[in-house]
Amino acid sequence: MPTDGPRRPIPWRRLAGASLRTLVAILGAHLVLVGLFAATYAIPDAPIVRHVSADLAAGRLADVYPDNPLGGRLDGYTQCLSTTSGVLPTSSTTSLVDRMTMVPRGPGECEKLGAYFGNLATDGPFADPDRGEAFGYIRYWSGYSIVARPLLALGGIVAAQTGSAILLVGALAGLAHGVLRRAGGLAAAALVGTYVLTSNVTTTPLAYTMAVSESVALAGAALVLLVPRRWVVPAAAAAASAFVFVDLLTVPSTSWALTVFAVGLRAWSAWAAGRRTASPAGAVLTAAAGGAVAWCAGYGVSWASRWVYATAYVGVDGVVDDVLRTARFRIDGDTTFTGAAIELSDVPLGSLGKNLGYWAMTVGLWAAVVIVVALVVTVVLRRTDLRAGVAARGGWTTVAALAAPALLVVVWYEFLRNHSQIHAFFTHRSLGAATAILVAALVIGWRGAPRPASARAAGADRRDASTPDGAAARP
């Protein structure tokens, strides 16, 4: 029987090395973050309570869900809640380890904070006045405290919002730098510019925990673009581990999609800076698939470790019960444990529809419409140049491969159906990430120009004749 030739052997040693590096990256990121978390929980509570109390008196924490200047609403509830993370009664003897396992926190209703802090100052009951239970939230690491507690202790809510804004700008700049290095300035502008305009991310510092999550999502993708090639997949896992540590299940699909896009872009960049002997579409998809799996591994390990730590607070049975109830609620909207009814659309792509509906209430969707119309007009006017550029950079299959990570946003929406629908007022921002990936994929396929550091250092005097805009021929 004729064959197409000998099969390529499975590179077990290479896979083992990549797996080991990925495990090291996940554990390393986790240990660093746990250390920072411990350090921030060791900060005295008194200056935090003093500054936040002054913010309450000045009316800077007055509204649970204030209007977003760009449409929709802000999550003032979580912002108020975050100011109480780790805060205990003044005479508490709870150890640092116990504080980290229980993650003490107060109410999210801003109007309750004054009385809550007053009770803590007088060694009053450390309990929710409505439920009569001790405050402790084991479902999330609440790693935003790494940023929040030091800033709240320094200057209250204004310092926290300002600091998160600086962090966000730095993350955006880092991502732009990474894309610039791998695909050129037009690609960087396409990805970062589209994301800024369509996701309403610029208002997240007004509810600063959201800005922290966005910053870590962006920084994770930037990390993937900047590390040495053999650390690309481990970096994707570390990015996910860091994201789940700081996030409160706000925009995981943003982190997932952008990180996987960055992994795929690394594969395209390596091809574009080389001999270009075949289409890179297969290599891009393979790399992206590996990045998607690595991201899930990093996310899963860090998420599961939170529950492992929590067994010291509520026991194994308590953790198992909470995990099962939360999973049923987040995925299917099962509220039998609360008695509250949740209106959940179970039609195919119902979660996507809910988020699109909320997105339409914001400036972001209309910015996306303008960008798409501008692209269509440009494509029509320069279709000959477009065809030549795409052909020189791998063809339309490569554009599709680069764009594929945008689908991960939809996958996440449909998997966590309930959460994605009842919290569409912040989960919709991931649609901006999907739009940015689609726009960037087209721009890279048309005008992408990788400039490896070695080529820049040598004066970039070796060029690939198939690259009209002067991409370096070899790394």
Automatic annotation (TrEMBL):
Keywords: Membrane, Transmembrane, Transmembrane helix
Membrane-spanning intervals of the chain: 20-43, 151-176, 183-201, 207-226, 231-250, 256-274, 281-301, 356-381, 393-413, 425-446
Residue ranges that the Swiss-Prot or TrEMBL entry lists as coiled coil: none
Keyword presence, Membrane: yes
Protein's name in the database: Uncharacterized protein
Region Disordered, residue ranges: 454-475
